[in-house]
Amino acid sequence: MPLLTQQIQDEDDQYSLVASLDNVRNLSTILKHATCLATKNGIKVTVENAKWTLTAFRMCYQGYGYPLMLFLEEGGVVTVCKINTQEPEETLDFDFCSTSVINKIILQSEGLHEAFSELDMKSEVLQITMSPDKPYFRLSTFGNAGSSHLDYPKDSDLMEAFHCNQTQVNRYKISLLKPSTKALVLSCKVSIRTDNRDFPSLQYMIRNEDGQICFVEYYCCPDEEVPESES
Amino acid sequence: MKFRAKITGKGCLELFIHVSCTVARLAKVCVLRVRPDSLCFSPAGFHGLREAGLWCEVRRGAFQQFRMEGVSEDLDEIHLELTAEHLSRAARSAAGACSLKLQLTHRRRPCLTVAVELASSLGRARSVVHELPVQVLPRGAWRACLPPSLRAADASIYLPRWRTLRSIVERMANVGDHVLVEANLRGRMTLSMETEVVSIKSYFKNLGNPPESAGAPPNGDLESMVQVRVDNRKLLQFLEGQQINPTVALCNIWDNSLLQLVLVQEDVSLQYFIPAL
Questions:
Q1: Of A11, A79, B81, B246, which is the most exposed, with the fewest CB atoms less than 10 Å away?
Q2: Which domain of life is it from (chain B) (predicted)?
Q3: % of residues, chain A, pLDDT over 90
Q4: Among B172, B200, B205, the residue to mutate for chain A (most A Cβ within 10 A)
Q5: Same domain for B33 and B139?
Q6: Which secondary-structure segment (H or E) carries B235?
Q7: pTM across the whole model
Q8: pLDDT per residue as tens digits for the range A2-38
Q9: Are residues B13 and B113 located together in one domain of the fold?
């Protein structure tokens, strides 16, 4: 996403942060209640759980105690939004470290779209199997009607990278993973990694209309129940 | 008392269906006034401008046939009270029809008969007839059916593009249930609302003011904004589902007391009043 953080001297002197977006549609689909972190490289938006699909968008923040200002423009109509800020709660740090990654695969997202949209929602968990041996990469659900398994072989066309060193079978609450499907739908590629604590890291690569790339990272905790061995 | 009218033009038919559906959305019971040159809809049981109300007029030109005879020669009108949903349902069955006929009839009780001629794909005509029970209102109740007559508005302005207006009001309605409408005689309008957490304001400009808006603003300054705060949901109810392309769409504001939206398309005009909160 082409976020511009620049020092616009004249009118924006009073602001600690000024950022502009030409098209806010992608941001709006994944943004609801957010903690925004501004860095030299751009704005990192951490979402804990918006419907402004207008064309031009500008976000300004004057500093502690001031409201967040959003300026949106569509068809000659300017809308100004002032949102009172709150004391940020500490965001959870999943402490996912790249060096302790055991398994990593990169898939083309289109292969996962159908799978995620057809997930049996009666199942409480989604079980992800990653292994150097068959079934390589498997998504499983266990619902009232039965269990279903979706296998992706490591030599599938959809598989861009496959680096699995150990067999890991982990269950994650479906309710925790469902929100990530919004990012999945927008993305062209997804990377799934698990570390030595069985924590997953899902990274979605999103390419917008201008060809610019941004990433959405998703973390959650594995379900504590020990999975039964697969038959 | 006699009334018989027929619509055969496709555009007029669509407009009539649209009017019936709009009336049904905004009022449960309505009054249909049959006059020598028009049909008028007004809300039933209207007790002054303490609540929102819609008045519609469909002029004679929309009908290919129009014949009426009022209560008497001096009182050449008929006032009928009916359930708005009945009429809209009957009108909706005329989507794509060849013609729609309205007639005042008597089937053990007064009815408004709506007869729809449909051409089937097999080439054989079908007709659907609806008998809508109506109550003929006595002369004493007529006065309450007229739209309010008011002094000139404090500000009169053309409305912005319908879709933009509707989507902004829709989004504001997600956040709060009131909206402040402001306008001046220099073509500027704003819509705003605020809650404890957020405040939103949309600015429209270059909208244009109707030439007849000779009403002078309260303090004589054309730039000064006239305002009225209204129930957002009432405004949204009117804006939703409007698929017509009005030739005239404007709003009139009486400072801190009343908002009136006026739409005119060919032989149809709608005016919706929303009192200040």
A1: A11
A2: Eukaryota
A3: 17
A4: B200
A5: yes
A6: helix B232-239
A7: 0.71
A8: 333 343 344 455 555 555 555 555 555 445 445 555 5
A9: yes
Say if domain A101-219 classifies as CATH 3.40.50.450: no
Q: Which of B203, B205, B206 would you mutate first to test chain A, the one with the most A CBs within 10 A? A: B203
Phi and psi dihedrals of A92, rounded to 5? -65, 135
| Nearest residue to B250 via CA among B210, B219, B197, B202 | B210
Q: Is residue B262 part of a domain?
A: no
A75 shares contact with chain B (CB less than 8 Å): yes
CB atoms B201 and A77 under 8 Å: no
**Out of A51, A76, A83, whose CB is closest to B197?**
A83
Same domain, B40 and B103: yes
The SS3 call for residue A204 is: strand
pLDDT in tens, A76-94: 899 999 998 888 777 777 7
Q: Do A79 and B197 touch (CB under 8 A)?
A: no
Residues of A with CB below 8 A from B196's CB? 84
Assess if residue B8 is contained within a domain.
yes
Chain B contact present for A85, CB below 8 A: no
For A170-187, letters b (16+ CB in 10 Å) and e give bbbebebbeebeebbbbb
Tell me if chain B has a CB within 8 Å of the CB of A71: no
